[in-house]
Amino acid sequence: MLRLSEVKNIPVKELAKKIFNGEEIFILDVRGTDAFDDWKVEGKNVDVRNQPFSEFKDDLNALEVDVPKDEPFYVICAKGKTSSMAAEKLADAGYDNVYSVEGGMQAFSEHLEPIEIGSLAGGKLYQFVRIGKGCLSYLIESNGEGAIIDANRMINQYDEFLNNTNINIKYVIDTHLHADHISGGKPMADEHDADYYLPPKDASDVKFEYKSIEDGDEIKVGDTTIKAYYSPGHTIGSTSYIVDDQYLMTGDILFIDSIGRPDLAGKAEDWVGDLRETLYSRYKKLSQELLVLPAHYMSIEEMNEDGSVSEKLGQLYKENHGLNIEDEDEFRHAVADNLPPQPNSYEDIRKTNMGQQNPEDEKQREMETGPNRCAIR
Ligand SMILES: [Fe+2]
Asked: Which 3-state string (H, E, C) describes 96-164?
C-alpha cells in the first residue's frame, strides 16, 4: 500500500524537556476515556485533550478535538502504536505538524528529569522528577562520591547522569518499603557495589541483604552528612533523611500540598497515631528552615517554576492543610475517611521490593502503570 506520509515521532525525553521548559504543548490523547481520566500527561503549559482513536479512525470528521493546524502537536496512547496510526491518519489529511509520542504513556511514565536543587558541602543535590508518575528521587553528591535516595527502577537513567558527571555511587538508601513503584535501590546498589540501606522495621520480610538505617545514624558522602530521622506513619519504618542540616527528605510522610497516607489500608488504624506524632511533634522539633523534599507529588500545582518540588518546612506548617488539623479525632477521621484507592498492583510491587519475586522487565512496567496514590489531601 502506498504510504502517503511518514509519521514523525518525538521521544519522551524531548517532550519532557519542552514541558519543563514551560513551552506551550498541545497533546491529543487517543486512549480510552477511563484510562485518560485515571492518568494523563500534565504540565504547567500543557493542553491535553482526549478522544479515543476508535471514534475517528474511520472518519476524521468524527474527531471533535480541535487540533492545531499550524503548530506542532503530539499524539499519545498507551504504548505508542495507536498514536502512530492516529498521527499517520492526521498527517495524511494534511496536518504537517503532528508527532506521535514514542512508547506512549508507558515510556513517558519512565522518564526522569534531573534538576539541581542546591549546593552541599563539596557538592550538589539533585532531584530526579518522574513527571509521568509523580515520583521524586535524589542524588547527593560531594567530592565525586554519591548517594541515591528512593531510586526508581530505571537505573540506566541515573547511570547516564552519573557517567556524565563522574560521580561514584557509594550508598543507595530508601526512606521506606515502597508500595506504589518498584524501587531501583537494590539493583542500583548491586550494580555499583554500593551499600543498600533500608529501615529495618520495613524490612522484616525482605529476602536480600541490606544494611539497617535507624534514627540518629549518620552516613558520610564526601564532605556531606546524611542523618536518619525516624518518622513513622506511612509505613512503620518510614525514615526521613536530613542532609547537611539544610534539606529534609520526607519520603511519603509529608508532601507539599498533602500528607502521607498509612500505606496499607488494613494498617490505617494502627498507623494514624504514628502519622500524627511524626507530623505534629517530631517534625516540629526540626529547624523550620529545612527544605522539604518529598518522594512524590500529586499535582503540578506543587511544582516550582523550574519543575522541581520543594518547600521550607516552616512554610508547610503555615499552608499545608494536613498539618493544621488541631483536633486529634478530626485528624484521625481526615486520614481514615480520605484513603485513596490502593495503587495498582501494590501487593506485587511490595513483594518485588522485598525480593520475594522478580518479575520480567515488561511485567514490572505493567505493574507500575497508573498514577501514584500515596497522599491524602
Ligand atoms: Fe510510599
From this structure: CCEEEECCHHHHHCCCCEEEEEEEECCEEEEEEEECCCCEEEEEEEECCEEEEECCECCHHHHHHHHHH
CA of 373 to the centre of ligand 1 (A): 9
**pLDDT beyond 80 at 377:** no
In this structure, the answer to whether residues 265 and 316 fall within a common structural domain is yes
Give the Å distance between the CA of 40 and the centre of ligand 1. 21
Number of domains in the chain: 2
Helix (H), strand (E) at residue 314? helix 313-319
User: Mind listing the pLDDT tens digit for each residue in 14-33?
Assistant: 999 999 999 999 999 999 99
**Cell numbers 527544605 correspond to what residue?**
291
Q: How far, in Å, from the CA of 95 to the mean position of ligand 1?
A: 43
Q: Give strand pairing partners of 296.
A: 135
CATH number assigned to the domain comprising residue 179: 3.60.15.10
Query: Which ranges of 171-251 does DSSP label H, i.e. alpha helix?
Result: 185-192
- Does residue 77 carry a catalytic annotation? yes
| Active-site choice (77, 148, 236, 349) | 77
pLDDT category at 274 given cuts 50, 70, 90 is very high
Backbone angles phi, psi at 306, to 5 degrees: -85, 5
Contact 138, 214 (CB under 8 A): no
In a domain, residue 124? The reply is no
CA of residue 238 to ligand 1 center, whole Å: 9
Three-class SS of residue 265? helix
